[in-house]
Each structure stands twice: as C-alpha cells, then as structure tokens.
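Q: Focus on the chain.
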Amino acid sequence: MKLRVTYILMAATAIFASCTKDSIVEFGTNRKEISVGAVGGHEIVRVASSDEWIASTDKPWITVSPANGRGSTPCTFIIDSALVTEPRSGVVRIQNVATKEHTDITVTQEGFPYFIEVEEPAVEIANYDSYGERWFDVKVRSNVDFKVDIPVNDNWLKCDKFTLNLNRGVRPREVTLRFNWDINTSPRERIAEIALRPKTSGITLERQDNLSVTQAAAEPIIENTRQGDSVALICIARSLNTMTSWDTSSSMDMWNNVTLWKEGMEGYTEDKEGRVRSAKFTLFFTKEPLPFEVRYLTAAEELYFFGNANTFLLSLSTGDDIAALTQLKRLTIGAYGLTELPTSFTALRNLEYLNIGSNNFMSVPEILTPEKFPNLRTLIMNANQRHAIYDLSNTVKSNIGGFIEEAEFPKRLLKWNKLDTLVLSVNYLHGSLPDFADDDEVPTWSREEVEAVDSLPDILIGKKKVMPTTKMLAFNYNRLTGSLPEWLLYHPALNIWQPYSFIFNQEGRTKTGIPAGFDNEPVNMDYYYTLYPTKNKPTGEDEVTDSIK
C-alpha cells in the first residue's frame, strides 16, 4: 500500500514539472505610456518575460531600475525634475535578449511654468524694536529671477541684496529675502504693498504672489503736555539704549538729570508748568540719529546728549526731528558719532549755545553761519578725531575726522563777531591763521575807537578788528603753522584767552611732515603787558610759560 502511494506522488511530480517547463510567459509590459508632472517622480512598470531582458533609453532624465533581469520583474522608472518650461518626452525600450522582441514605453513630462510663490504673503510688524532687531525674513520659491519693487512712498522698508541660484534651468529654487524696517512715528498704521516682478520682460507667470507688510501705529504721545514729556523721555532713553533710565513708578519731579519748569524761573509761563525744561542723556549705545520722540519736548530750553559707544566708528546725522524744537536755547550733542548736520538743523535759530564736540566731522558744517544762527554765542567743536594721529604725513587714513578736509583754517568762524566763545581745540586743522589783510569785510580799529577807551593802546589803530568781544578762543593741539597775525598778538582779550595753553600750543606734524607750531610765538607776555599796563599780569606767569615752552 505504501509503495503504491509513493508511485502516484512521483508520477504527479513528474507531470507538474513537465507542465512548468513547457509553459511560456508572453513578453511585454503592463504600461505603454507614462505621464508625470514637472517635479518628476517614480513610476512602477511590470515586465513580463520568460527570458533575460534589458531596458534602454537615450534620455538622461529617465532612469530604469533594475535596467536588466530574467523573468517577470517590477521596474522603477525614475524621472528627474524638469529643467525647461516646455513639455518633453522620451522612450524606454524593453527588449527580450533571446528573441530580440521589444516593447516601447513613452514617457512624457510637463514643463515648469514660471511662477513666484511667497510662503507668507502677509506680514505684520510692530512700530518699534531695538536697533539691529528691526527686520523680518520672507521665503520665496521661484524659477525666474525677480526683483523686489517697494513703492517710493514706503521707503521705511528696504530689502537686502539676494541671489536666486538658477544654475539648473527653471527648476524652482527657494530664496530668503531679508527686509529691514524703520520705526513708525505716526499714530496710524501703515501698509506697504510690495511687488515681486521678473527681471526679464516678456515672461508670463502662471502664479505671481506679492507681499503685504502692515506696521502697527506708534505709541500715542499727547503733545504739549507733561504726560507727553514723560513718555517722550522714556522712549528716547529706550531708543538710545542708555545704561540707566528712570523709574516710571515715581513722579517725574524725582527723575535725575531732568529739570521741570516752575514758577519764578526765567522764561516761565503757566502753560509750561511741570513740563521738561532740560534733560540729559549720557552713556548710551545707538547707531541712529536722535530718536524721533525728541520732537515732543516742545517746552525744553536745553537738551544734552553725550557718550555714545564706539563713537569713532560711526558716521551719523542728528536727523530732522530735533529741528522741531525751535525754542531750544542750549544743545549738546557730543561724542555721538556725528559727521554732518542736516539742512533742517537751521530751524534752531534761537540757539545760544551749541556743543558738538568729540564727534567725527571732516569739515566744519556749512550751515553754521551767523545768518542762520543769529542768537548763537557759544560754539564748541573740539576733539573731532576718529583716530589719534601725531604725524599727519605718515598716515594713509582718509576718514580721520578733525576737520581734516578743511583746506585752511576756517576763517569764517573768526568773522563771527557775536560769538563770545569759540572752541576748536584738539582737531587736525592745518595751515596758517588768517591775517585778513586783504579782506575788506573785516573792519580795522579806528583812532576814535581806541582813543575812546583808555585801556586800548595806539598800536591797535589800523589793525584788523577780529572777534572784539570774544571771551574765550581756543584752537590748541591742532596742526597750525606759520606766523601769528598782529590782530591776535595785540588783541585786547589775548590775556584772558590764556594763549600759551589754548592758542600757541600746537602738536605733531603737518601733512607735509613739518612740525606744527608758530614761528613767531612770543617768549613771554611782557610785550603785551607793556602795551596794556592796566591789565594785571598773573603772578609767576613767566615761570609757567617757560615750563610750557
């Protein structure tokens, strides 16, 4: 019985093997056409075959894996991303190696349409943020080089330079645009509609996204009020990044470096009661002009800004907002990094005192004239040196401040007769002092003037009358050379100007390499006190001047 069953199983196995060996799989594929989008992708094609087969194509953007095999096999067609805007097509041939029979599969791919796509087309920003933090990024996908068009009226928004790398044709790329924005000083929000346009004309876009930027309104400041003044002070300190600020929980009357108007003060009126009369801001760090909130301190007579960080690296303007304070009488903007005063600055016609020392001016601002500032009595512009340089002939630095661009001593300042104080010390002024011999605009001392005052010597008659009422004149530690003019040597105020400290004393070498200093500097002041016997010669002056020399 067992033997019989064994024979039956052996016979069945033989019959099954015979049938499998004799069966033939018809050669072919399950797909004749493949269509894909511009981004490409993977498509599966099943090959049916009893024999070995091989796949081939002359299109480098089509890859078949596996590219050969035996028997029926699923194959993956890998289609690269398109590189052009027009559709493209290719053929993949699957061939039976034994029979040479083949089947062709047509692959068609769409081209990339031109488009500019913005990831977030609507952006909202605050009205204020710290310097260096006022920016936002926007991601853009595109396959065409484009430009960013910001409306002219929206110059508060700027886009940094960017590069869209399209080295592989019109395949889309992503680029990040960085936008920088200015503080919104208006109590109303503002909206900028920014267009992204192809750089090349004639290109039709299937999609074109634009960018809308909405900026919040400024914090409200009630003008011409005590409350508005306090908010303005806090905002100014915040924008300047001062090392210390005021405790807003305490009354403004208790704030350091702030003086408020009170009855009995000169210039007091009832509408100024309790408002800011003067304020000081020191030890701060800013790379911008004066904060716009200064325009709200409309009762202030004096403002003081001094001590910016890294001053020598900066090239700043005061900005236009300070020009709104036409009532200002005293203004100090020192060690701030200034290199210019804007034309709007001339609105400050009531200034009596201006200190812009320790800045980076390359030349004396042209707007500083007696016509534009008729009430100015004190002008201080000392120590405008970006870099301390002893020998000007040995430096290749071109931007060193110190009025280095003045071709000669700024004689127009010496003709500003209403100034009682002019300080130009520690700069890089060069050349000689003007004698005004051929300048008819500068008058001479008349005999009548000299004889009318017993203390004036006859030697003044006919000599140039320069700065006759000036109480302080200082231009020491410059690079001046040549001869001291007679108007200076015999000036009625020379003794109170302390010439050995603030006039005669120069330093270093000039651009041509010659030592700075005057060739006719008097040994002492004996000649002067002989001419002016009523003036009291300081005790021990000879010893002091000798030690200076």
Remarks:
- The mean pLDDT is 90.
- The first helix runs from residue 2 to 22.
- Residues 389 and 396 are 11 Å apart (CA to CA).
